[in-house]
Every structure is written in structure tokens, then in C-alpha cells.
Amino acid sequence: MSAVDAPGAEGRALRGELDPARVAALDTGSEFEAVARLSEQLEAGYTRAVAALTGKRLVPSGRPDGVVVCGMGGSAIGGDVIGACISGMPVPYQVVRGYELPAWVSEATVVIAVSYSGNTEETLSCVARALPRGCRPVCVTSGGRLAALAARHDLPLVAVPGGLQPRASIGFLSTPIGAALEAADLLHGFDEQVAEAIEVIAELRGELAPEVADDDNEAKTIARRLLNCLPIVYGAGVTVPAARRWKSQLNENAETPAFFNELPELDHNELAGWATNPGVVGRAFLVLLDDPAGDERLRRRLAFTASIMQPRVAGLVRIAARGVLPLARVLSSAYVGDFTSLYLALLYGIDPAPVVAIEDLKARLAGEGGSAPF
Ligand code: PA5
């Protein structure tokens, strides 16, 4: 699947610590199990969403004029994933991460609010803005205030199972967006995309799970090489959402800074930043998400960009997307990162589930933990 160099010295020093016993000792929130069950989530999430949305009217009348998906973090990423799977859709599609809706949203816009907890203030703000415009937001949540709003306003609701981390629920949170687009008659054949993704992800799980020995396990190999490096993840075309997912999974599971960017844009600015200052760039480790079924112009750029940067950075790995249809290609690119981030957490001695810094900030904003310093 990828071109991986030999593991670095730091990685070798920790060999033997990524086995199921180490997972059982550190992974108190069962993050590995949740990630391992992505195929099952995709199947259950799609079935559940189709049942909830079939026959529902998502706009008051006529043809929708656009689609807006509102969410943050682990709930928003599904919006990006589905955004990569809808080429040819006849109306604009936008993922909103913030408090405000775009000016163009009208009663004819399909608004989809995704919040795993149901209590994310930015997402709730978007719903509050959508209602007076005459929209009927589709609510995707495990409960909280979003579920209560859906009940109060009789909004279409896709209820997802609780008890997981939002980022570990991507199968439950993304498939309802595709199902909503189908219900609005904006997308066709999404069931085929889901079916292929289920197969491809199940196959990958068999290669990346903790039971698979280190030398045969690409995610373990990459995690060892990322140790004490700064991960930089590049995507192009359908792998851009996967690059974002890699970055946020590394941030939240392994609690490491990580960044992502996309081609072709980065060739017009970021590339210049890699030319100097070896003290900084020498700790960067590049992860390139290649899509063999993608645009040849983008693939060529990825190869050239890699060749320019390789001598300057600590290491580089290329991951090749699998599958034919976009959903499988996006999710397969992201899935290697899901497992890599979990293994990197183990190497750093971190339980991957808690996100203390994020919870602390939310509590402070809710007025429970002191005031802002400015
Ligand atoms: O992964 C996480 O925990 C976060 O990125 C959350 O998804 C984000 O803070 C939004 O919360 P929710 O998904 O509950 O709307």
C-alpha cells in the first residue's frame, strides 16, 4: 500500500509495545475497538439514517438550492468526507464550522446539523439561525440539546448510539449526510459507495489491527517513525478530507501537534517554507495521501512536491487510497491514520480517549472554570 522506509532509531527502541496487551492496559475508552468497528458503523449508520429520513421532506417545497452541513471537530469531518463523494451534485455544498450560516441559505436549503453530544454551541447556533429562515434542519446526534430541539420543532432526526467519542463515531455521523442527500433527491447510488467502503475498510482492518505483527502492520510502522516528529499530512482531491482527519486524529488520540494542507494550493506557498531552517523542518514528517484513481495532474504534483521535500524532512511516507468509488477512497486513506494515531498514543504512553484540553476549554466557555484572560 505504501512506500515506507526503515523505522527510525527511536521507533526501534519501543518495538514490542504495540500488542493487544498494551492496548488493553492503556486504552480505557476502547478507542481501538471503536475504530476497528468502522465497517459495522457504516452499515448500521446508513441503515438507521435511511429508515429515519426516507419519505421526509427536507425543504418546504420544490428543489433544494443547496446543502449546508454544520458541525465541529469529530462531528464536522463527516461533512468533508461526504463532500468528496458527491461530484456532479447539481447544487452547492458547504461545510460550516462556526456560529453563523452563509448568507445564501434560504428555506430551500438542506441544512444538516451534526453534533455527537448534541451540545456544541456553534452547531446549536447554526440551527437557531436556520429556523427563522424557514429551514428544517436534519439533526444527527446521540442526544443533548440538539435532540431536544429536534423534538420541539418536529425536525428530521437521525439518532446515533451514545457512549463513544465523536471522532470514533465517523461511520454513524457521516452516512446520515449521504442518506439525507438521497432523501432530497440530490444524490444517487450512495448505497453502492457505502457497500464498497464497508468491504475495503474490513479488509484494511485485517491488516492494521493490534493482533497484526509489527513488521506486517503499516500503521504500527508509521507510528514508530512519527515518534518525536511533527506530522504534516498532505492530501489532494478526495484525500483532502482524509488529510484533515489524519491531523485531527493525531491531535486528539496521540495528543501531538500535527498539520495538514492540500494540493495544488500548497505548491503556491507552503512549499517555499520548506527550503530553509533545517532546525525547524528537520523534525517534520510528511504523510502524503495519494489517490491512484485521482486526477493525474494532482498525482504528478504530489510526486514532485515529495521529491523536493524529502531531503529536508525527518521522513516521508506515501499512503495509497484503495477502492473505486470516492467513499472507499477517502475512508481508506483516513483509516490508516486512525490506527496510526492510536499506536502513536501508545508509544507516548497516552490513553487515546480523553481529550482533557478540549473538555476543559468547553467547561471554561460554559462558565464553569474561570474567565478568559482577555
Ligand atoms: O472529537 C472531539 O471530541 C471534538 O472534536 C468534538 O467532536 C467537537 O468538540 C464537537 O463536539 P460534538 O461532536 O459533540 O458536537
Distance N to C terminus = 49 Å
CATH class of the largest domain: Alpha Beta
Please tell me the overall pLDDT: 92
Q: What sequence of helices (H) and strands (E) makes up the elements?
A: EHHHHEHEEHEHEHHHEHEHHEHEHH
What is the beta-strand fraction? 5-15%
Précis, in short:
Helices cover 47% and strands 13% of the residues.
Task: Write a structural description.
It is a single chain. This protein has 374 residues and is an alpha/beta fold. It has 16 helices and ten strands. Helix 7 links the parallel strand 5 and strand 6. The N terminus is likely disordered.
Question: What's the helix and strand layout?
Answer:
Layout: E1 2-3, H1 9-13, H2 20-26, H3 31-36, H4 38-53, E2 66-70, H5 73-83, E3 93-96, E4 109-115, H6 121-130, E5 138-141, H7 144-153, E6 157-159, H8 170-183, H9 190-208, H10 218-226, E7 230-236, H11 240-253, E8 259-263, H12 270-273, H13 278-281, E9 284-290, H14 296-309, E10 315-320, H15 326-347, H16 356-365
Parallel strand pairs: 2-3, 2-4, 4-5, 5-6, 7-8, 7-9, 9-10
Antiparallel strand pairs: 1-10
Helix pairs in contact: 4-8, 4-9, 5-8, 5-11, 9-15, 10-15, 11-15
Bound molecules: 5-phosphoarabinonic acid.
